[in-house]
Design goal:
- This protein is an alpha/beta fold.
- It is 39% helix and 18% strand.
- It is built from nine helices and nine strands.
- Strands 1-9-8-7-2-6-3 form a seven-stranded mixed sheet. Strands 4-5 form a two-stranded antiparallel sheet.
- Helix 4 crosses helix 5 and helix 8 crosses helix 9.
- The relative contact order is 0.17.
- The model has no long low-confidence stretch (mean pLDDT 90).
């Protein structure tokens, strides 16, 4: 029987933190502490050292890959004698709730747009493509929010098809974490960026994951490079509970918040409720739908107990 380590060794080049940091190759750091304060998420222990050691090498790798694809496109267009519409390079970032996907996405966006080869880097999350709250209730999916079936896949595929085709002014629906719902008639406009980063729980899903024989396209069919942010399940559960506790004084304290009723809980009650949410929703979704897609990623960033990356796996 093949072990997980043997599987990783067959598919990936493994780098310890110091080895990966060496691949920065003198790329300058363009962010400062103020920038990081705006980029880091709740409960994220992100430092400039983390950016230097982990994210600058990722930025350099992606810049080389995007540059090579752009050059190949120029060569092909020269041969064919026509100029096609501008099509973005698409990067997806997957991983569990509470692993820090959003922070990773924001940092990479900030670093990649500093490269002269691709100054316009847009970022969207798949949260906006969740069915509206009323529709989730109608379908009986409120307790499965974040599971693959809770997303409007038709809308998501229509969006990514237009973006990949080079269409201008493509609309992506926006989501409010305060209202826990899609914002009606409010969109983010994607207008032919050089790079589009898409962050979400299930962005690595393929037809293999469907319980039905489906021929429809998946988001992953349109992605050029994929990243999975990884951590041990026990750590993810711990980070989720810690984040929930912090939200009581943050997002939950807002009277307009869907979860405002949680703001009055004491520590013991908060830990119990957060643990129940994890055990009934986020944990099963991770185990059934998210983790099984991990080995499809081109790059796996593995976090240790301190929220910092300790290993990087790069697909051969």
């Amino acid at each position: 029987m093949t072990s997980a380590n043997q599987f990783h060794n067959a598919l990936y080049l493994a780098f310890q933190r110091a080895q990966w940091a060496d691949l920065r190759n003198s790329v300058p750091l363009t962010l400062n502490e103020t920038d990081l304060a705006n980029l880091r998420g709740i409960n994220e222990k992100l430092s400039l050292t983390e950016v230097t050691d982990i994210y600058l090498p990722v930025s350099r790798l992606l810049n080389l890959i995007v540059g090579a694809k752009q050059q190949r496109g120029l060569t092909l267009n020269q041969f064919l004698g026509h100029t096609p519409p501008k099509r973005p390079y698409i990067i997806s970032i997957a991983g569990s709730v509470a692993v820090g996907k959003s922070t990773t996405a924001r940092i990479l966006q900030a670093l990649l747009e500093q490269w002269p080869e691709h100054p316009q880097v847009d970022l969207i999350t798949t949260d906006g493509f969740l069915y509206p709250l009323a529709e989730l209730k109608r379908r009986g999916l409120l307790q499965r929010k974040g599971f693959p079936e809770s997303y409007d896949m038709k809308l998501l595929i229509e969006f990514i098809t237009k973006v990949k085709s080079g269409d201008a002014s493509v609309k992506a629906p926006l989501y409010s974490h305060i209202k826990y719902d899609r914002i009606p008639k409010k969109n983010q406009i994607i207008n032919q960026p050089d790079i589009l980063i898409i962050e979400g729980l299930n962005v690595l899903q393929t037809g293999q994951d469907s319980p039905f024989d489906t021929k429809r396209p998946f988001l992953s069919d349109f992605v050029d490079f994929s990243i999975y942010v990884d951590a041990n399940r026990s750590l993810l559960k711990q980070w989720y509970v810690e984040r929930f506790l912090q939200f009581r004084q943050g997002a939950f304290a807002n009277p307009k918040s869907y979860f405002h009723h949680y703001s009055h809980l004491n520590d013991e009650e908060s830990v119990q409720i957060a643990t129940n949410i994890w055990d009934s929703i986020n944990g099963p979704n991770l185990q059934l739908n998210i983790e099984p897609t991990r080995e499809r990623a081109h790059l796996i960033l593995q976090k240790g107990a301190d929220h910092l990356m300790d290993k990087v796996l790069l697909r051969k």
